[in-house]
Amino acid sequence: MSKRTPGLVKRGKNGIWTIDKRIRGYGRLFESTGTGDRQEAEQYLTFRLEQIRNEMVYGIKPEYTFRQAATKHLLENEHKRSIDRDAQSLRILDPYIGNLALRQVHQDTLGPFIASRKKEGLKSNTINRDLAVVRRVLMLAARLWRDDRGNPWLETPPLIRMLDWKDARKPYPVSWVEQERLFAELPKHMREMALFKVNTGTREAEVCGLRWEWEVSLPELSSSVFLIPGDLVKNGEDRLVVLNSVAKAVVNRQRGKHREYVFTYQYKGEYKPVERMNTKAWRRARDVTGLSPVRVHDLKHTFGRRLRAAGIGVETRMVLLGHTNKQITTHYSAVEIAELIEAAEKVSFERGSTPTLTLLKSSNAMTEGGSRKSHAFGRNKKGYAYVTL
Fold first, then answer.
1. H-helix or E-strand containing 27?
2. How far apart are CA 293 and CA 135, in angstroms?
3. Average pLDDT for consecutive 10-residue bins of the chain (389 residues)?
4. Residue 126 half-sphere exposure, CB side, CA atoms within 13 Å?
5. SS (H, E, C) 168-202
6. pTM (2 d.p.)
7. Residue 31 is part of a domain; what is its CATH number?
8. Is 376 a domain residue?
9. Are 246 and 266 in contact (CB under 8 A)?
């Protein structure tokens, strides 16, 4: 039987060793070793104990690892809506830079991580999200965090360049026919969410997190709107969500299912909130219908394209899409909201009366999987274009 090492405890589903040890004159040392291997965990514990001894006896300034900084960042910001995304990035980064001292984390040491992610087929924008978290942690370590002697965790944050491989996927606004085909393959609860999204221009997180408490009744208009708090919106501003007849019907069908959340799914007779739309069900539906390039976010693009095709002005489109514009007020009168509802109504599904986007596709516009690929509005050298009928 192996001997238990004092100060090390195995925690979590992945069996990661955690240091939990009280040190006289220092206090409690509580942090993850980042490994499930006991020998590696013991070596890390020895390293940390020696580091603390040097600090206490000789006054040598301690060096913090990126893992320690990452843990501090997560603990201090666990209340933020985006922290789960940060945690996901930091988990992926940990095998590459977790054990490195903060001063050792820079563009060169991030090279293996970037190369590995690129080999997996990820695009530069996706990898940039992870790099942005690294940059944020290093900035906090240099400018905000201090040790017991008032010294910064990191003297100077390094410059970390964002990637630009010119590989960003272009928006794919769907046509009415494509929408019908795609939505018909979705589970009922997903179909309702997609229908709401394509009629309101909301983001995936806004749809999944939509709460009844944000609904504002407008009796004089026989309607209602949703006002999403700014701290839950990407641009940090309160988000007005206007409902056309289709979106309003979707919302009404959800009433009475859940006390808190608007969109839910039924599991063992109980309604539970939906955490995300980009699921296996969504990916299966788009593959079955030959619409592999379509992302969940393209439903927002579709709403915007349809508004433009219907002749809705730029400022009104920005309000309906929740885009930032300092010239746009965040306070609306009933008359102004009525105008917004009227604009949104022009892109509700009424065959024969709604302007439709028809996509002209060139024979050489193909995705890697072989399906045809759509491109943004306007002509280019290959002859792609969107036209309004």
1. strand 27-32
2. 31
3. 74 80 84 84 87 76 89 87 86 95 96 95 92 96 87 92 87 93 96 97 93 94 90 77 96 96 93 93 95 93 95 93 65 86 87 46 40 36 31
4. 14
5. CCCCCCCCHHHHHHHHHCCCHHHHHHHHHHHHHCC
6. 0.63
7. 1.10.150
8. no
9. no
